[in-house]
Prior knowledge:
This protein has helices spanning 15-26, 45-51, 60-65, and strands at residues 6-11, 31-37, 55-57, 71-74. By secondary structure, it is an alpha/beta fold. It has a 4-stranded parallel β-sheet with strand order 3-2-1-4. The longest helix is centred in the first third of the chain and has 12 residues, at 15-26. The model has no long low-confidence stretch (mean pLDDT 88).
Amino acid sequence: MSGPHLSFGMIGASSIGMEALLEPVARSDGVRVHRIAARRAGAAQPYASAWGVEHVSTDYEDVLTDPVVDAAYISNAAADHAH
């Protein structure tokens, strides 16, 4: 199989997302982060640019409905996870 076989989406643009998802994915073959969504316009773009993430949006639903995303990592505060 060529290319990634597991594709993540990241909900929220926090430093924990960098440490818990972006850095480990960068060290893993066959895994990538395909999309980052952050409610604040422009918050996800620095992460996307630094880590080679192709898609950025301001709607969390974009991560959940993206047909390329296999799994979502919730990177915002624990109190906001259910929302």
